[in-house]
Amino acid sequence: MTVGLDGSGADLASAGWAAKEAELRGADLELLHVEDWPQNAPFAIPLPESRRQWGEQLLADTRERLAGEHPALAISTRRIDGAAAAEALASAAADADLLVLGSRRLGPIAGFFVGSTGSDTIPRTETPVVLVRAAEGREAPAGRAGAEGPVVLGVDLRSNCDRLFAFACEEAERRSCPLVVIHGWSPPPMFAYAPALDPGVEGEIAEGLEATLRGMLGPWRLKYPRLAVDSRAVIGQPAVQILEAASGAALVVVGRRIRRLALGTHIGPITHAVMHHAAAPVAVVAHD
Length: 288
Hints:
Universal stress protein; UspA; Rossmann fold; Rossmann-like_a/b/a_fold; 288 residues; elongated; Universal_stress_UspA; 9 helices
């Protein structure tokens, strides 16, 4: 596992969450710092001659703190100079099972600031990326690896969700917590007035979607027979439904469609909304 550090307050939360997650997985943890200083940063930038020492000290201090809290965890450090942060993080993620990044809270209404580095890194890698938020006024993350609460998975029934199901089921099983699967939907425009004419139309659509969702989950229920799964096909904007279900979650899982064309990489609007407004850690999983 790799966690990216940039010296912001969110580092404490993301590194702490990553250490607990690494213990759950029985994995080693790599602390990574990339020297990619913006010209107009919102925090003080060290003088050019002190960049290397500052980065090394950041890694050393974080490693020392985590080693004291997790003495059995194997922790390594790495610093990359002169590279674009998003490209360097994506390249490092290629050799990791998981990439963890921090984000900070802007306010109860504005949500969380993911930042250009996080937003640029996610579309560049097929490795799952987890965004961890620092709880307001505290160093601890808003959600914790192993925290009480379910793993919440948002799915689109029109997509191939196997990677999402695999990731979410594994995370829920590691935590011994329930898995809540959400598909949000709205009636097609052509049926806008149909419920008034036939109250059964909306119900028939809902039953069909719920049956489809149960069918997609069937193989995963067999693979994880001890996992408690709550599947819901609910009317409403998907992002809103996922965020409502995510209140108190240990982890939220959403997808990003892999685009092979050079100009096609982006994060969809539902995943973008969840990334910026969910208080729990958010895992973005690339899928076909």
